[in-house]
Amino acid sequence: MVIGLDWDDTVTEYTTGFKKLVECATEIHIITLNSTITEEYAKDVLGFDNHLIVHIMADEEIDTSLPYFGIGEWKASKCLEVGVEIMFDDMKEVVDICIKVGVPAIQVQAR
To answer: Between the N and C ends of the chain, which has fewer C-beta atoms within 10 Å?
Structure first.
């Protein structure tokens, strides 16, 4: 299974749960705005040794004319591009847009 994960307020809030979830993944895509996340760090945090790629939204992709600067549109597009089968994110806007484009998504509630 190809899983998409937001980092901040998603993996960071529920690290133990996501460590367990990724055991059933063949591929993980971290789809985030956090430019400090590296593949090595994400693999270490998640305990995942398989195929993991970090995708970071570039500053030039931010569209200030859109609600939430186009984060939802960018993340949904990235999910489609890389074949994410289910996306987890704390932002309702991201989840709604993913679902709208046909990517199953679950909103994680930040504590």
So the answer is: C
30/14 Cα distance (integer angstroms): 14
- For tokens 């984060």, what's the residue? 71
Spell out the residues 6+ positions from residue 36 whose beta carbon is closer than 8 angstroms to its own: none
Could you tell me if 99 and 75 are in contact, meaning their C-beta atoms sit under 8 angstroms apart?
no
47-87 pLDDT, tens digit per residue, is 999 999 999 998 777 777 876 788 999 999 999 999 999 99
Q: Which amino acid is at 109?
A: Q
Q: Look at the alpha carbons of 72, 75, 77, 79 in this order and tell me if their dihedral is positive or negative.
A: negative
Report the C-alpha gap between 96 and 76 in whole angstroms.
9
Q: Is 0.90 surpassed by the pTM of this model?
A: yes
Distance from the first to the final alpha carbon of the chain: 27
Contact assessment for residue 20 and residue 35, using Cβ atoms and an 8 Å cutoff? no
Look-up of token digits 């960018």: 74
